């Protein structure tokens, strides 16, 4: 006769949920899930404007549709040279380490936001990063749906 063996773990054998390593692994897993909707193939604004149905692909392989009206409104007033350089969607990076700000690493996107008067011309890059307050980033996200994405780190 076979006996079923039961393994019991004592509470001391398991890592505690309050253990920093456990929390960090869990948070990285969740952030990976949240960021699945981030576009992997960022296309030039000039190319998206020519597409009948502007789309790209996300990390999880799904179709990401750009709002055609938002593309046209956003492109208005942007010089063609910048339209050819700008890759969409532009990305804002947010981290729990900096709770009140977002960062951009795309200098062309920042230049376009200056041209559109969405950010001050006095804002500049330091060490390849441009910092914006979250309210400014969120206002841009709302104003131009599908053209900007928020990446959580």
Structure, explained:
By secondary structure, this protein is an alpha+beta fold. The chain has one domain (38-152). Helix content is 35%, strand content 21%. It has 6 helices and 8 strands, in the order H-E-H-E-E-H-H-E-E-E-H-E-H-E. It has helices at residues 20-34, 45-50, 68-75, 80-85, 107-115, 134-143, and strands spanning 43-44, 55-57, 63-65, 87-88, 90-95, 98-104, 130-133, 148-152. The strands form 3 sheets. The protein has a 4-stranded mixed sheet. Strands 1-4 form a two-stranded antiparallel sheet. Strand 5 and strand 6 (98-104) form a beta hairpin.
Write the element-wise H/E pattern from the N-terminal end onward: HEHEEHHEEEHEHE
Weakly predicted, low-confidence segments? none
Tell me about the biggest sheet? 4 strands, mixed
- Order of strands, widest sheet: 7-6-5-8
Q: Which shape, going by the Cα principal axes?
A: globular
Rg from Cα: 21 Å
